[in-house]
């Protein structure tokens, strides 16, 4: 055999052997386990992949002792042709959370391929204590839990009784996620507090930090509280149902990140307020509960006038504090001055630092007799929490000079203490009276038999049927007891809801006016300040007054709508429905109370 032929035959046999070995390798079945890490903290997640190069049946995973399955099994298949050679891969994936620390074995998994059973190798995993930076192999819920926080920020935790404190509810959101919607689940009940909501006009995200990490936050609710009781008081938590969009490691056809949506319930947690009682030492007798920093004045519209004219006297307190929670001092006026019930007015605005502005009583005074009448000095006492002392302010004495008018007989007969001379009448005391009158006749008109005579004669007869018809109509109206009650109740409802009706279409102003109308109605009927009570106390109070459950539930539902409207959208249709419902509820309450 020639040498050249031997070399060609040798090359051919070598190439055939190589091709046959490669073909054998391609036909070999592989089934193996792959771990994302072999050592992890107890607060981290472990990804386990079981991969094979041929499709099979009856896949049996291990028990995963020491771990909890968070997700899986999820399947992924990869198939491709390269230079006429087919490549195939199928994977079963699990996401696991460790349940304890220690050494654990991921046992063998099995699968049937082409009638043969294949098993993977076992793998050892070490679980250590929690780490500061857990792995990103977490579920959507885990990411949402760590990236979403509802916080109640309290301005003061140890205020005095009736001293203002503010609570601001902020929702902190990590930059990696986004919030698409939220719904209040449970609004806090500020028992033993007088509360005033500050409406959040617009929700806007701001940059901030939470536990030293950068976050975005939005202010959801702001409220100012005045504690009405000393001791340990609790503020109930605000709870929200939040829809969260969490990014995943998957991407769409265009390379954009795919987001997964989940719902999470977040709560601000309970907060405890230690309310300090006002000191008893040095408390004045005339202290009426005012806490803050105030100014006090007593003024009159005029100091000189005639009898039967009127003047206005204003008792005013201005400043910052619990302006709506104390009584204004009353002036002690002389009995010769006719004084009408005061007209109360307030110009108060509420911010996070508390209420500020002024409140006043306006008295209408009408003097009856001539003379000078002093309005004595009036004192007003308040507690200043900054200096922790009681302070008393006093007004100047004001003298009202009534120049013209009748003289009070009591004062005229009284001794002149100032030594002034009594007025003496001058001029003629007696005048001559004429005995002979100087009269002249006047023209006479004959009334008897005239048109007016017959008109006045028969007019009463004509009015008798009219009077009978009017009498029957009045008797019918008077006998309609139910109808009269409904009319009175409707007039009462329109009286209290007139301001709310004017604000229809303006959500915030409408619901503030509606809530005030409901409380003012109960205040007028029950003679108590129901704005200081919680909805549960109001319901209990109405129950004691034998009001039926349907009317009570309707009244409480309206109060809840007034609270919800401050941070939830309400349509004009809803406002009209609430207005009609309020009119109906006030009418029903008036019948039963």
UniProtKB/TrEMBL annotation:
The signal peptide, as residue positions, is: 1-23
Keywords of the record, alphabetical order, are: Membrane, Signal, Transmembrane, Transmembrane helix
Give TM regions: 453-471
Q: Which Pfam families match?
A: BatD
Q: Which domain of life is it from?
A: Bacteria
Q: What PANTHER family does the record tag this protein with?
A: BATD, PROTEIN BATD-RELATED
Name of the protein described by the UniProt record: Protein BatD
């Amino acid at each position: 055999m020639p040498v050249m032929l031997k070399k060609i035959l040798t090359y051919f046999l070598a190439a055939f052997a190589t091709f046959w070995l490669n073909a054998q390798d391609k036909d070999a079945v592989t089934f193996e386990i792959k771990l994302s890490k072999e050592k992890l903290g107890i607060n981290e997640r472990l990804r386990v992949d079981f991969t094979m190069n041929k499709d099979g049946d009856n896949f049996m995973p291990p028990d995963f002792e020491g771990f909890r399955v968070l997700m899986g099994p999820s399947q992924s298949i990869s198939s491709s042709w390269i230079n006429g050679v087919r490549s195939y891969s199928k994977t079963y994936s699990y996401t696991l959370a460790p349940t304890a620390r220690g050494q654990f074995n991921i046992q063998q998994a099995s699968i049937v391929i082409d009638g043969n059973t294949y098993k993977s190798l076992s793998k050892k995993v070490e679980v250590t204590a929690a780490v500061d930076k857990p792995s990103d192999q977490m579920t959507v819920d885990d990411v949402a839990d760590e990236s979403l926080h509802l916080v109640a920020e309290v301005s003061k935790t140890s205020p005095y009784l009736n001293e203002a404190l503010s609570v601001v509810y902020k929702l902190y959101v990590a930059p990696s996620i986004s919030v698409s919607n939220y719904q209040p689940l449970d609004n806090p009940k500020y028992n033993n507090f007088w509360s005033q909501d500050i409406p959040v006009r617009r929700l806007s995200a701001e940059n901030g930090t939470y536990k030293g990490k950068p976050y975005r936050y939005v202010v959801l609710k702001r409220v100012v509280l005045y504690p009405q009781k000393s001791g340990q008081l609790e503020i109930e938590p605000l709870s929200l149902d939040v829809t969260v969009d969490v990014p995943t490691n998957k991407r769409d056809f265009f390379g954009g990140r795919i987001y997964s949506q989940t719902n999470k319930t977040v709560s601000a947690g309970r907060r405890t307020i230690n309310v300090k009682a006002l000191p008893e030492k040095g408390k004045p007798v005339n202290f009426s509960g005012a806490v803050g920093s105030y100014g006090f004045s007593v003024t009159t519209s005029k100091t000189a006038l005639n009898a039967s004219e009127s003047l206005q006297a204003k008792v005013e307190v201005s400043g910052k504090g619990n302006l709506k929670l104390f009584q204004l001092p009353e002036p002690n006026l002389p009995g010769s001055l006719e004084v009408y019930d005061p007209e109360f007015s307030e110009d108060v605005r509420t911010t996070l630092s508390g209420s500020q502005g002024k409140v006043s009583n306006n008295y209408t005074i009408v003097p009856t007799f001539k003379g000078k009448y002093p309005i004595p000095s009036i004192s007003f006492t308040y507690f200043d929490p900054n200096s922790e002392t009681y302070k008393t302010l006093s007004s100047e004495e004001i003298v009202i000079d009534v120049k013209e008018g009748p003289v009070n007989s009591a004062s005229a007969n009284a001794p002149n203490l100032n030594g002034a001379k009594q007025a003496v009448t001058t001029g003629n005391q007696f005048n001559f009276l004429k005995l002979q009158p100087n009269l002249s006749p006047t023209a006479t008109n004959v009334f008897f038999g005239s048109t007016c005579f017959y008109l006045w004669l028969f007019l009463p007869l004509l009015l008798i049927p009219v009077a009978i018809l009017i009498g029957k109509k009045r008797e019918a109206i008077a006998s309609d007891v139910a109808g009269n009650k409904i009319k009175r109740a409707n007039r009462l409802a329109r009286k209290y809801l007139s301001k709310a009706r004017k604000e229809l279409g303006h959500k915030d102003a409408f619901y503030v006016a509606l809530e005030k109308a409901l409380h003012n109605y109960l205040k007028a009927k029950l003679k108590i300040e129901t704005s200081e009570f919680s909805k549960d106390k109001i319901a209990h109070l109405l129950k004691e007054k034998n009001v039926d459950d349907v009317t009570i539930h309707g009244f409480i539902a309206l109060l809840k709508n007034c609270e919800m409207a401050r941070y939830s959208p309400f349509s004009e249709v809803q406002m009209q429905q609430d207005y009609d419902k309020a009119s109906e509820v006030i009418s029903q309450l008036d019948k039963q109370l």
